[in-house]
Amino acid sequence: MPESLILDADAALWSVEPADVAGRHLLLLLHGYGADEHDLYGLRAYLPETLAVVSLAAPLTPPWPMPGRSWYPIDGLDGRDPSHVTAAAQAVIEWVDAHAPGAASVGLLGFSQGGAVSLQALRLEPRRFAYAVNLSGYVTPGGLPRDAELAEAKPPVFWGRGTHDDVIPAALVEHTTQWLPDHVDLSGRVYPGLTHSVSEQELADVHVFLEKRLTDAAPPPSSDDAGDRP
């Protein structure tokens, strides 16, 4: 088993003051392999303004000469070992418990490795996260103890990927295609011509997905409104 991982809280980039996240809907951004916390933070302009956003830094350094950070190894004998993906997801959960316990809801948005970690975190804590956005990522093979609970809860998941993405192995794409519909409320799109990247059309679709999540989370109108009184 891999050692426990701890995320660098000082590296996280917040769109609001951390003390102001209580009662807000929070979206966690999880970058891809070789990137860092700055990579997805620039997507804030494409996201609903009412969301509080925090971009996390992965805990590992990839082998030289790859720059940036990584959530788990993808090279060597333990490359893409499911236990390493689980360790990264557990570190994300522990970060949320420590730094955002008062958030009204917590959603996950990850690219590539970050997408895989987001889905793994959802599997570890099916009722802790409101939804997940998986961009060019995949579901890690192998069962987890709460997969049946996830299938019962069926949280919303958006999965976007490109037809020309040659980074994620075909076997993992096929596994994800088969696995997700049985365990989550799946929506998404395959983008013609898109490589291992994110397009403006995809971000527009993500915006619609996130707005729907915020609408679903809004409290119903109060029966005490003046217009409802006899």
TrEMBL record:
Pfam families: Abhydrolase_2. Residues 16-212 form the Phospholipase/carboxylesterase/thioesterase domain. SUPFAM superfamilies: alpha/beta-Hydrolases. One of its GO terms (molecular function) is hydrolase activity. Keywords: Hydrolase. The keyword Hydrolase applies. It comes from the Bacteria. The keyword Ribosomal protein does not apply. Belongs to the AB hydrolase superfamily. AB hydrolase 2 family. This is Phospholipase/carboxylesterase. It comes from Microbacterium immunditiarum.
